[in-house]
Amino acid sequence: MKVDNIHLAGIGTYVPATVPMAEAVRQGWVDSTAAEESGITAVAVETELPAVDMAVHAAGKAVEQSGHRPEDFAALLHSGAYYQGPEGWSAPHYVLNRTLDRPVVATEIRHGCLSVLTSLRLAAGLLATTTDSEAVLITAADNFSTPLVDRWRDSEHAMYADSGAALVVSTRPGFARLLAVGSRSESSLEDMHRGGERLLPPARHADRPMYVAPRLQAWAERPGARPLDMIEAVSRFGALVAETAEQTLAEAGVGWDDITRVAHIGFNEDALHAMILDPLETPAKVGTWEYIRTIGHASVSDLVLGLAHLWETGQVTEGDHVLLVGATEGMEAGCAVVRITAPPAARG
Asked: CA torsion, points 27, 31, 37, 38, in degrees to nearest 10?
């Protein structure tokens, strides 16, 4: 989707202290071979703040940087890949109450690790049709510090990191301009993360972790499965990533030669190359791997953390284009193109 007159006026992040992978191995949380093969050197772990409070911290930074007043906002869009709190309770309104404290809509975007890109798309559409508001606040956060999640071994593709992130999407100029955002899906692969589990009653296993890897294994071993099914599925998803990137670049009116850096999802090294970097023919040094490997897979916050890191450290500046690339179950790939419009020194 091509976007007109939509800017990123503020960005905020919350990344807790990290646990070195060597310490995780010493504690027996992860096998030494798996740790080495992941390429991850440390994982961000927050044992005190819940996800929503990390989102509040990040939002405070983003709103302050944007220069917007609470009355400028039309909505708050909040997301998390994991549970944010009790069932039948609203995490978005918790964040709203502690940030803007305005009687605007606050809703949760449940789109896995693509939630921020989907929120960007919704925010752009909302601002294009709203005449009395200038901004939308996007927040994202997850905390996996629970006995119900094994952050180190739940997935063969990632080590789960705790974090919070926020963006102020605005009709006013900010540090970047959103040129295009969109996603494409391959719904024939939805059963990969279902793993044959029953859908009624919905599975809520209070006595065990998320079990992502076992469900993928169950899919690979389903009746009639072939040894090449997983390889073909990864290949099909890689093609989807490439198609989504090409479409988004075309909508943004830029080519690959215009892209300075790529901020991507925080998979482990092999999975990152197989599903994202290799299909895009993008070397790791152009992406955010060197940063991501120091914090792990920050779920819904990955792309915001990567963009903030690139801009705040001066790796991108005025006139540079950044391609944001994400993925989620379904399977679905999403991209956005932003043009940096302010040097890092202008921050704050």
From this structure: -50
Helices (H), the chain: 21-26, 32-38, 51-66, 91-97, 115-128, 212-220, 229-252, 269-272, 289-292, 302-312
- Do residues 326 and 113 make contact, with C-beta atoms less than 8 angstroms apart? yes
Residues with Cβ < 8 Å from 73, sequence gap 6 or more?
A: 100, 102, 104, 133, 134, 135, 136, 137
Enumerate domains of the chain plus CATH numbers. Answer: 7-174 (3.40.47.10), 180-340 (3.40.47.10)
Contact (CB, 8 A) for 45 and 1: no
Q: What is the pLDDT of residue 269?
A: 97
pLDDT for 207 equals 54
Closest C-alpha among 189, 231, 198 to residue 330: 189
Q: What is the pLDDT of residues 50-77, one digit of tens each?
A: 999 999 999 999 999 999 999 999 999 9
Q: For residue 90, what are the contacts with CB-CB under 8 A and spacing of at least 6?
A: 106, 108
**What is the Cα–Cα distance from 24 to 145, expressed in whole angstroms?**
14
Question: Could you report how far apart the first and last alpha carbons of the chain are, in Å?
Answer: 30
